[in-house]
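Input:
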Amino acid sequence: MFFWIIRRDLLLAMRRQSDVLTTLFFFVIVVSLFPLSVGPEMNMLRIMAPGVVWVAALLASMLSLGRMFSSDYLDGTLEQMLLSPHSLSMLVLGKAFAHWLVTGVPLVLMAPVLGIQYDLPADALYVLTASLLLGTPILSLIGAIGAALTLGLRGGGVLVSLLVLPLYIPVLIFGSGAVEASSAGLGYSAHFSLLGAFLLVSLVFAPWATASSLRISME
Amino acid sequence: MAINWFKYSSPSSFYSLAGKMIPLFTVTAILLAIAGLYIGFFVAPTDFQQGEAYRIIFIHVPAAWMSMFLYLVMACWAAIGLAFNTRLSSMIATAIAPTGAMFTFLALWTGSLWGKPMWGAWWVWDARLTSELILLFLYIGFMSLQAAIDDPRRADKAGAILALVGVVNIPIIYFSVNWWNTLHQGASVSLTQSPKMAATMLTGMLVMALACWMYSIAMTLIRTRVIILERERHTSWVADLHEKEAAR
Amino acid sequence: MLKGSNLVCVRGDRRLFKDVNFSLEAGGIMRVTGPNGSGKTSLLRMLCGLSKPEYGEISWHGKPIGSLSGEYFSDITYLGHLGGAKDDLTALENLRISSALSGTEITEQDAADALQHIGLGGRQLLPVKVLSQGQKKRVVLARLLIGKTKLWILDEPLVALDTSAVGMIKEILERHLAQGGMVVMTTHQEIDIAAVTTQQLQLV
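Output:
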């Protein structure tokens, strides 16, 4: 069932590739704006890079949250999912996973290229990519709760950012912290363990909270 | 001990009960605040390091305590409302949020007023200040979500889920901000290393905290009454109430 | 057996209906009628368990549906007025995915046969967005041919259908009822369906 949902959402994403590309280009543009606003001083850029890339990833992932449930809501397929004999939490997990494959993974793949723009050394690039790989699924999982809560509301897009961004803060801190720690020659394994723990916690709680929110929003 | 608590879980009886309790809590809050401020300004000694500026803690610290405590209380009421489908609990949760946000803002504001003479800057990225700021964001998120939903039942339940997610997240956020702060230790500005406090200072702070507590209860009751009236405006008991008021 | 007792529905400040009582046995069809805004769709959504009545209880074989959830969902098929077909997917994909979601996984051949039967032969591989309203409706209705659920809850199933399609739906419904199924439906069209018991629920 889990795989049916993933297959379905991936198929839909394939038919609407522009949505995927918009998110990716948004990410690239936001990251590229920073040198233009603070100047091309390489030393400063190298220090800023992890933070900039992570904040841009947060925003890009959040931007695509609106689509997670709203199109299904509008054409009635979400109603059908709620009436499925399968566990709704499982379906939600599938949708979050598909969201990550479509928005998170391209960001992870693009990050090293952007890191090069900021002149990050090779090992920092590696840590940056790994931290995004570990952190972006959390963004999709937590974001799903916000998307479900704001389903069908006026101005839901802005509202979802208000709800979700504060909850993203730990991911931001550990994700960019890992890169900084590795640049400073400190170990980054603690950061990764904490990101992993946070991922596990959100894997357990987020699908359940999202499923409850969907039932509330659809009533 | 046979008090029928459920009697007061109906909005109409709670409305009249709250009406009787509000003056009580308001008067207590005012008396405690006068006592606390008197201790704070006249009894407590001048701090040898910080001079007179430290006296802002008599409002800053209670406000910070209340801001965190009220979030927990709010989440509890919201959870009860979600689990047992009791409308009144959800209304109380909605009523607590603005007071909680107010205390959070007050804690931030007084914190920055204190920070200027202490650290020479209006704002420092201290772990506690940052956590407090994020708490303010959480309150604002809760209130704007409820404001955006027209159907009160959905608003109650959606708010409850958000509050619960927030409660699970608060320890994680607090921990991560602490971690972040120690990693980037600046000029070691930390509120945790405050010197040993004189007993009168502590008394003043506790009295002020009690005053804030009483004030929160009074405000919550007032706001709950307003929410009850708004939601039950089509029921007969509200119409009767209106007639009684008009006859007076 | 589906039974509703003393159902009350409140939307915002308005009470849509109250004291709705009914009981539907195997082989029975219940038509819900009433003017626009009388709460027909709200009632059907309640019967599915999507929303809860303000007061009253809905039970399925003697148990309240709230306590059954997954078990109940595998016994019902609900076709809402929104349809439930994705515009970007083909008719075939839509049918396979919605069947899988509702608990019956089917092969591509089964899905193609069902679509053929419902009159969409040759259009199975077109994305639904290029189909006409009536054809879209047929894609959704094809689910009735696949599932093995007992209770069908249909919100305006005949809208946008031509006469031949209406005849076909009538046939499908009659076969389902003859096998001991149950149907709850709303429709503004006159249609005469043979059933063991026929009842009408009038909402005002």
